[in-house]
Amino acid sequence: MEQTIVLIKPDAVKRGIIGEVIHRFERMGLKVVAMKMVVPTKALLDKHYATDKQSTVERIGNKTLDTYKKYGKDAKKEFGTDDPAKLGKMVVGWLLDFMTSSPVVAIVVEGKHAVENVVNIAGPTMPVNAPAGTIRGDFSSDSAAYANEEKRAVENVVHISATLEEANFEKMLWFTPEEIYSY
Fold first, then answer.
1. How far is it, in rounded angstroms, from Cα 46 to Cα 131?
2. Among candidates 21, 49, 46, 48, which has minimal Cα distance to 35?
3. Same domain, 91 and 44
4. Which of 70-74, 84-88, 110-114 comes out lowest in average pLDDT?
5. Cα distance between residue 163 and residue 165, in whole Å
6. Choosing from 23, 48, 113, 159, which is the catalytic residue?
7. What is the pLDDT of residues 79-98, one digit of tens each?
């Protein structure tokens, strides 16, 4: 059986839809084997998102530039720079501020093809692209374009591990082996 991480983000916690999100996973046969509510530290989030690495910051900055090009906007005019590293640092700051703005609910779910099933239930990272029936499609309509314009992180309800390797890494960041149950 595979195990994977789900983080119910501050937007979902503040809206009171924790139970609905968990229900989506349980309804398809995934089992919650660990769960806790925590306000994450910036140090934990730097490790989790690898935002302490320059390559990650630049990748995020380049994604921001791509979003601006897609919507015909001028990043340099809006932010005073089109340097991917500087833009990435700005976006990472918004992400860290968002993720530390309230508790998150960290969960380990277990089941057959847990990683793939969680990815499918959550939907695409960008809610505007997520189909109805997915968590992000049903509970958010946010986009990078609006988030960047409003100088904040994208509110997309959940973080999920995209691969088994990522799930195993993140599981050890958020939980000790004693906090993960077998039943």
1. 30
2. 21
3. yes
4. 70-74
5. 5
6. 159
7. 999 999 999 999 999 999 99
Indicate the residue type of 156.
N
- Residue 176 Cα distances to 122, 170, 180, angstroms: 25, 11, 7
Closest to 114 (Cα-Cα) out of 12, 32, 48, 174: 32
Q: Please, what's the b/e burial string for 128-159 (b: 16 or more CB within 10 A of its CB; e: otherwise)?
A: bebeeebbbbbbbebbbbebbeeebbbbbbbb
SS3 of 40, please? coil
* Cβ neighbours for 22, distance < 8 A, ≥ 6 positions apart: 8, 32, 107
Q: Which of 101, 127, 152 is the last residue of a domain?
A: 101
Tell whether 148 and 111 lie within a shared domain: yes
Amino acid at 99: M
Phi, psi (rounded to 5 degrees) for 8: -85, 115
Q: What is the pLDDT of residues 146-162, one digit of tens each?
A: 998 899 999 999 999 99
Active site residue 23: no
